[in-house]
Amino acid sequence: MAEHKGFSTRAIHDGQQPEPLTGAVGVPIYATSTYQQDELGKPRLGYEYARVSNPTRDRLEENLASLEGGIAARVFGSGMAAVTAFCQMMKAGDHVVAGDNLYGGTPRFFNQVMAKFGVTFTYVDTRDPANVQAALQPNTRYVYLETPTNPLMALTDIAAVSKVAHAAGAEVIVDNTFMSPYFQRPLELGADMVLHSTTKFLNGHSDGLGGVIVCKTKEQAEALAFIQKASGAILSPFEAWLILRGVKTLAVRMKQHDLNGRRVAEFLAAHPKVISVLYPGLASHPQHELAKRQQHGFGSMITFDTGSLDNAAKVLKAVRICTLAESLGGVETLISHPASMTHAAIGAEGRAKIGLTDGMVRISVGIEDVDDILADLDQALAAI
């Protein structure tokens, strides 16, 4: 909407306009599976069946497209359902160049499901665009990136990789879950599609699953709308409403996540029990300058190495305010063990290849009082 320029304004108003009939400020949950048609062949406002379209879902898609700067968005029942929808845009014989450090469920789906249908994948360290260049093939359809990566917090220069991919006729899709559109907008940097697990920062309250792909072209949007209709992995009206509610506070939440994340990273970097800290906001991070150029902040995702599985287990058992759980992006601080949780699926050999050790702990810093988070981590590290 042209009159809403700022990010926070768009988050609160785009797609979130009052409901016309009653003036309700909150977008209603249209809990219906079907719609009355005025007469044969004339569905009201184009609504026929809820798998195909739903007003609450439509509002969310409008909102998320605005935040990422795309022409349209398509939402799905989970982040992995969004990954699946992306894969359904391909055909046998297509090739994908992907980052070698992705959320574990993504290569699991690529290798154990999509490979059965004749799609091939090459995994490279995308920190160097030359690695992407070398892996491109005549049949490469997409380059699939996460930046920062999960959980090693490595960055990819989206603009540089997009230039390389486009020269070869390939499109770039970026999983932007860790940053949210508040801190990073890949379409502005040259990417062709953006993917999120809306479960994380977009929802922000650890109470709903979802996924989204934001598109740059009409062709992408139409293809994904057809996949929604044909495969049916759509987002429910209630889950769409949860995300619409969460997005209204996205800007203020991300600001606090960022402030707390920086403090926690600095604390961990100075702690004698911590071997190393992976956080692009630290000047010691090898891609700190890229982070400053490509992102609008550093966020709250941090990985730190305790030195061993035994040490990690002691820390995770001792935390009291930090919650031991999978997932990330909630208002509460979540702490996890990537090797046995999010990245168990890639196996010990796969973890060793990318440098993911058994002593690593990943923390999604919440928006609690930061001094309480620091005190909790300090007492937990004392267990080592």
List the helices and strands and how they pair.
Blueprint: H1 7-13, E1 37-39, E2 42-43, H2 55-68, E3 72-76, H3 79-87, E4 95-99, H4 105-112, E5 120-124, H5 129-135, E6 140-146, H6 158-167, E7 171-175, H7 180-183, E8 193-197, E9 211-215, H8 218-231, H9 237-247, H10 250-270, E10 276-278, H11 288-294, E11 301-305, H12 309-318, E12 323-324, E13 334-336, H13 347-354, E14 360-364, H14 370-381
Parallel strand pairs: 4-5, 4-6, 6-7, 7-8, 12-13
Antiparallel strand pairs: 1-2, 3-9, 8-9, 10-11, 11-14, 13-14
Specify the helix fraction band.
Answer: 25-40%
Q: From the 3D coordinates, which CATH architecture of the largest domain would you assign?
A: 3-Layer(aba) Sandwich
Strand content: 15-25%
Largest sheet: 7 strands, mixed
Per DSSP, the total helix count is 14
Give the CA-based shape: globular
Helix-strand string: HEEHEHEHEHEHEHEEHHHEHEHEEHEH
Q: How many E-type strands?
A: 14
CATH topology of the largest domain: Aspartate Aminotransferase, domain 2
CATH level 4 superfamily of the largest domain: Type I PLP-dependent aspartate aminotransferase-like (Major domain)
Overall tally of structural domains: 2
Task: Give the strand line-up of the largest sheet.
Answer: 3-9-8-7-6-4-5
Mean pLDDT: 96
Radius of gyration: 21 Å
How far is the N terminus from the C terminus? 53 Å
